[in-house]
Amino acid sequence: MNYNRRLVCLCGTPPILKISWTNDNSGRRFLGCRHYGSSFQNSCKFFDWYDLEFPSQANTVILGLLKKTNKQEKQLKCRRMLKLILGIILICNVILFFYLVCR
Ligand SMILES: [Zn+2]
Q: Per its UniProt record, what InterPro entries does this chain match (predicted)?
């Protein structure tokens, strides 16, 4: 879509480009009020799609990739936590070893 740079939302500020992560419109960009969802009291609910609607196949692919990425991020988080726990156990064992040897 061809938007004029002087576009102003209902509360008088230029809207910002955001990305939707809903199931129906994953990855689709839209213009929204920069104050929406913030504590700014005079925010409006300005909303307009920036991208044309994606074909349903594109939505399916994007959702699949998003789920895959989320799953990998969870696995990575678990691995980092496991490494931290193993590191703590290793340090405790080293301290215990020297404590028992030096007694
Ligand atoms: Zn606004």
A: Znf_GRF
